[in-house]
Write a structure and sequence with these properties.
GO molecular function: translation elongation factor activity
Order of helices and strands: EHHEEEEHEE
Family: Belongs to the GreA/GreB family.
CATH class of the largest domain: Alpha Beta
Keywords: DNA-binding, Elongation factor, Protein biosynthesis, Transcription, Transcription regulation
Number of domains: 2
Radius of gyration: 22 Å
Shape: elongated
Number of strands: 7
Helix content: 25-40%
Protein name: Transcription elongation factor GreA
Pfam families: GreA_GreB, GreA_GreB_N
Number of helices: 3
Largest sheet: 5 strands, mixed
Distance between the termini: 29 Å
Strand content: 25-35%
CATH topology of the largest domain: Chitinase A, domain 3
CATH superfamily of the largest domain: Transcription elongation factor, GreA/GreB, C-terminal domain
Structural class: alpha/beta
Length: about 160
Amino acid sequence: MNKVPMTVAGEARLRKELEELKSEARPKVIAAIAEAREHGDLKENAEYHAAREQQGFIEGRIQEIESKLSNAQVIDVHKLPRTGKVIFGVTVELLNLGNDEEVSYQIVGEDEADIKAGKISVTSPIARALIGKEEGDVVVVSTPGGEVEYEISSVEHR
């Protein structure tokens, strides 16, 4: 399987979620299943079925996180040389040449993307257009509303 790029913060967040699932959620659902079993007939026991469904979700999420972490390529942008080039993990300040609006995006892994927090996936159209470009370059991004021109104002290693 291919390595999945991930920031240091993204890896830490996944590890925290994994620890919470294993140390808190899993024991709670096991206790809920045991308690529901004590109520008797399992065929018509909604609490039992709900707890089993929750257990399936938790175990699936644990496997998913462990898989992602095992294939993660953690990139610490602070350890990389500042070249002014757009690479994974940097924060890019952009000027929309069509309406003079400024936007700021950090290029992160797919699991870390959160547009409201200014984090875009490395596989997004904007990030793909930006990767490899430098401060001062103008890039054209194809969006559903048409093509948008951005000038790269700054590239920061935050």
